[in-house]
Amino acid sequence: MSTTPTPVPLMMSQVAVTFDASSLAISTDIPPSEGLLIPAGITMIVLTLSTINGTSEAVFQTAPIQWFAADNPFAPADPPALFVIQRHGDKKVTLLDFNSAPDSHRFNIVVAYEGNTYGSDPMIINEPPASGGTPDDDRPAGRSRAGSRGHKR
Questions:
Q1: Counts for the chain of helices (H) and strands (E), in that order
Q2: How confident is the model at residue 118 (pLDDT cuts 50, 70, 90)?
Q3: Burial call 25-42: b when 16+ CB within 10 Å, e when fewer
Q4: Which of 3, 43, 64, 134 sees the fewest Cβ atoms within 10 Å?
Q5: Residue 17: alpha-carbon gap to chain centroid
Q6: Cα atoms in the 13 Å half-sphere on the side-chain side of 4
Q7: DSSP 8-state assignment for residue 68
Q8: Residue 23 Ramachandran class (φ > 0 left, ψ -120 to 50 alpha, else beta)
Q9: With helix as H, strand as E and coil as C, how does 76-114 read?
């Protein structure tokens, strides 16, 4: 007897990524104090790149995401198993986030501009889904947060 699989909802979050050619800096429209709330389950995070204050256009690097170890924000790491990254031309990247792991994932966005490569700083951290109800966690239960966080070098 065959059964029809139950469809899994796919959520989508759009993130504007801006490369400022005058300061050689990358920023996003993710509010630093709120982060980007990602529900438990599958979410497609769409990163769209634009360039300001420059005579040419920045593009996403061939490998547009640089992952870092959760326990050492300066140590590069292999991509986590629960993310699928696709580069769609020079200006758009999608991350499929299977948001169910109990780990935080740290990454920088990487762009190329006039023959040089630049990474975002601060780093973006994708936190695990919230359990909800804890005093230090203001996220709704079952949601994670992806947001920029500064770190000292």
A1: 0, 12
A2: very high
A3: ebbbebeeeebbebbbeb
A4: 3
A5: 10
A6: 2
A7: E
A8: alpha
A9: ECCCCCCEEEEEECCCEEEEEEEECCCCCEEEEEEEEEC
Specify the residue for token string 């769609």.
88
Q: For the chain, state the CA radius of gyration.
A: 16
Which pLDDT tens digit goes with each residue over 128-137? 665 544 444 4
User: What residues contact residue 24 under an 8 Å CB cut-off, 6+ apart?
Assistant: 113, 118
**Contact (Cβ atoms closer than 8 angstroms) between residue 49 and residue 19:** yes
Better-predicted residue by pLDDT, 28 or 1? 28
* Helix H or strand E encompassing 143: strand 143-149
Residue 36 CA to residue 10 CA, distance in Å, equals 16
Which one-letter amino acid corresponds to residue 34?
E
Instruction: Find out whether 73 and 151 touch, Cβ atoms under 8 Å.
Output: yes
139 to each of 5, 12, 71, 148, 152, how far by Cα in Å? 31, 18, 22, 16, 25
> Residue 11 burial (CB < 10 Å; 0-12/13-18/19+)?
middle
- Those residues whose C-beta lies under 8 Å from the C-beta of residue 21, and which sit 6 or more positions away, are 51, 52, 53, 54, 55, 56, 58, 113
